[in-house]
Write a structure and sequence with these properties.
single chain, alpha/beta, Rossmann fold, six-stranded parallel sheet, globular
Length: 163
Amino acid sequence: MKATERIHQKIFTLEDIKRQVSRWKLVSKRIVFTNGCFDILHAGHLDLLSKAAMLGDVMVVGLNSDASVRRLKGSERPVNDEHFRALLLAHLQMVDAVVVFGEDTPLDLITLVKPDVLVKGGDYRAQDIVGYQEVMTGGGHVEIIPLVEGLSTSALIEKILTL
């Protein structure tokens, strides 16, 4: 199998991820889930994803669709379209699956995946994280990974615009 085929196989539809999660659970894989816009992939994202991946066997990333990003971040975003952002994430060795979701929150996707570990960045309190209650009720747990100081997509865009 060619490398590009392997990369594309890491990008799942909602229907396909449901089947894949069932396979992983059959062989007792510990599933880690995180989500975000990942508009301009930077070192802060890589730090979060690599630390999150170490918390389990399988790393699933929920990716906000273009329409969702526009609703959350404004009409000028995303900088990169969802196909490009999904491909970038799928190229990362620590990511096993990427799923694009169109809602403003990943609650439906979290409910579908039922991760063992739900991960978000340090700008959240555990109880405020979408899916917290569902993951805790399902016997999983929530991890908050400290952010890398000074690294954010918004700050990066602002810096580029001032150059």
